[in-house]
Design a protein that fits this description.
Helices cover 55% and strands 11% of the residues. By secondary structure, the chain is of the alpha/beta class. It folds into three domains: 2-90, Gyrase A, domain 2 (2-Layer Sandwich), CATH 3.30.1360; 120-266 and 329-382, HUPs (Rossmann fold, 3-Layer(aba) Sandwich); 401-561, Isoleucyl-tRNA Synthetase, Domain 1 (Orthogonal Bundle), CATH 1.10.730.10. It has a five-stranded parallel beta sheet, sandwiched between helices. Strands 1-3-2 form a three-stranded antiparallel beta sheet. Helix 15 crosses helix 16 and helix 20 (496-506) runs antiparallel to helix 21 (510-529).
Length: 570
């Protein structure tokens, strides 16, 4: 639709310049004013003339009528006037020829753009705390972050995905204390992250009875920062166990990272930044801790060092940002974390500004809401978690059961069941605006009807089936449009490039997820109401097969951008 908007905007501008030579409007300004009518019967696009009333010194209905008479767009659209609006009905023939040829020519690149060519984007996402298994609370940062990476890549950006592992902090001291008091190597090796998290939960249970354990944990972390060899050895072992388990989940999601740079990577890079704060007289002592006072900016103080001199999150994040700017020359650095960390990011962004880093506006925090199961909040320290591997397993098993009933002879059934089962969870998570809190219900996610991943994947598989059954049908002729469902599907497909730009601009994968449902809805109406392979007229049959193929291309491209795999048979 971007292409159509530009053409219509140029046609409107030509009419305005002829009627009002001193208007001084641009085609880009007019394109931005174009709207989608609330009812498709009113047109595919609408141009409100109200905003021009003051500039052109005329009533909106008079402006609309004058422009409609002067516009030269008969080969593109039919123009009608409704009050102060120009309603634009795109020509079916032009729509079919333009959209189908664009999709068929670009195929896997349809919807992409070059807006980011020559620009670097660093994305910091997933970043689980080590020694703890992936639970559903980690899903948001992981799939939102990777989707944003794919979207930016699709728009030409050079993207660097970084997994900023939470592998440095007091929680590591707690893990070390817990292992030495209650753990053994054989059990932990056998249980993996499950064994480590059991020890972590036990630490918090025991610390409720004996708060001095927290002092022990802080002391062990301080020793870790001082590179005590025994603590370093334990820390590395915990890290290896964690990464082995995380990589299983990442493989299921189809996610890879360019770098694993945890907080520990920056342990020797913080002092230089802390010294800058000292030199600029930003650091103040507060009850023995080093802080930056942000009361002037209506924020609590930003804690930089604990009383014992141990580092805190802001000092590590500042060191990481400087390292990334120096080494990756980013134009934008995106952090995908819980909305609960919004104050933290606002604080250390402000500290960096006060330190004199003039590129701080290139740092972007992308927050997202919380997830619960049955309304219960998740917390590792209490053991109230739903592990992602368990959720994936349950989902895959349920899909297996459905497939055994509906398509027991399906080749690669295990692979397809994993793609659908995992995809169902990801799609369900990404369907709503990222900032909204989610109460996750597996049964809803797994439905093959409604706004779900299985419904989208099944629709894609249907487009593949049509192509397969069409065989060697000659598709080289000019397309024809004979039904409103065909036009509606073409209009929906034409919107994909615009949706991609909106998703990048708003850091919002749900724009693509909801668009996928729009395509599925339009396609299935077309499929139900327009005979495709059984159409009597061969030209109509070929056009409809091409339209089904185009819908499949767009669905595959869109689903890929939200981390969803696309089996051709389900």
């Amino acid at each position: 639709m971007i292409h159509f908007k530009k053409q219509i905007a140029n046609s409107i501008l030509g009419a305005i310049n002829e009627l009002w030579p001193t208007a001084e409007l641009t085609a880009a300004e007019i394109a931005d004013m174009l709207e989608y009518p609330p009812d498709e019967a009113m047109g595919n696009l609408a141009f409100p003339c109200f905003k021009l009333s003051r500039v052109l010194r005329a009533a909106p209905p008079a402006i609309a009528s004058a422009i409609a008479e002067k516009m030269d767009a008969s080969d593109i659209a039919k123009i009608s006037v409704a009050g102060g609006y120009l309603n634009i009905h795109l020509s079916d023939a032009y729509l079919a020829a333009s959209v189908l040829s664009s999709i068929e020519d670009k195929r896997e690149n349809y919807g992409s753009s070059d807006m980011g060519v020559g620009k670097n984007v660093v994305l910091d996402y997933s970043s689980p705390n080590t020694s703890k298994p992936f639970h559903i609370g980690h899903l948001g940062t992981t799939v939102i972050g990777h989707s944003l990476k794919l979207l930016h890549q699709f728009c030409g950006y050079n993207c660097i995905g970084i997994n900023h592992l939470g592998d440095w902090g007091t929680q590591n001291g707690k893990q070390i204390v817990a292992f030495r008091k209650w753990g053994n190597k054989e059990t932990v090796e056998e249980m993996g992250c499950d064994g480590l998290v059991e020890l972590y939960v036990k630490f918090h249970e025991e610390a409720e009875k004996d708060p001095s354990l927290n002092d022990e944990a802080r002391a062990e972390f301080k020793k870790l920062e001082e590179h005590d060899p025994d603590n370093i050895a334990l820390w590395k072992w915990f890290l290896d166990i964690s990464l082995r388990e995380y990589n299983v989940t990442y493989k299921q999601l189809g996610i890879t990272f360019d770098h694993y740079m945890g907080e520990s990577f920056f342990s020797d890079k913080m002092e230089a930044q802390i010294q800058i704060m000292r030199d600029k007289d930003l650091l103040k002592l507060d009850d023995g801790a080093s802080i930056v006072d942000l009361s002037e900016y209506n924020m609590p103080p930003c804690l930089i060092l604990k009383r014992d001199g141990a580092s805190l999150y802001p000092s590590r994040d500042i060191a990481a940002a400087v390292y990334r700017k120096n080494n990756f020359a980013f134009d934008k650095c995106i952090y995908v974390t819980s909305a609960g960390q919004s104050l933290h990011f606002a604080q250390w962004f402000k500290v960096m500004e006060l330190m004199g880093y003039d590129w701080v506006n290139e740092l972007v925090h992308v927050p997202y809401g919380t997830v619960s199961i049955g309304g219960a909040k998740l917390a590792t320290r209490t053991g109230n978690v739903v592990l992602l591997k368990d959720l994936f397993r349950q989902s895959i098993e349920k899909v297996q059961e459905i497939m055994m009933e509906k398509n027991p002879d399906l080749p690669n059934r295990d692979e397809v069941a994993e793609a659908v089962g995992v995809g169902a969870i990801v799609f369900h998570y990404l369907y709503n605006s990222r900032i909204k809190d989610i109460n996750f219900i597996l049964e809803n996610a797994l439905s093959f009807e409604g706004n779900t991943g299985p419904y989208a994947q099944y629709t894609y598989a249907r487009t593949c089936s049509i192509q397969e059954k069409a065989g060697n049908l000659d598709l080289s002729g000019s397309p024809v449009i004979t039904a409103p469902e065909e036009s509606a599907l073409l209009v929906t497909l034409s919107k994909f490039p615009e949706k991609v730009l909106d998703a990048v601009d708003q850091y919002e994968p749900s724009i693509i997820t909801r668009y996928v449902i729009d395509v599925c809805t339009a396609f299935n109406r077309f499929y139900q109401n327009c005979p495709i392979l059984t159409a009597e007229d061969e030209t109509v049959r070929a056009s409809r097969v091409r339209l089904a193929r185009a819908a499949g291309i767009v669905l595959r491209n869109a689903l890929r951008l939200i981390c969803i795999k696309t089996p051709e048979k389900i």
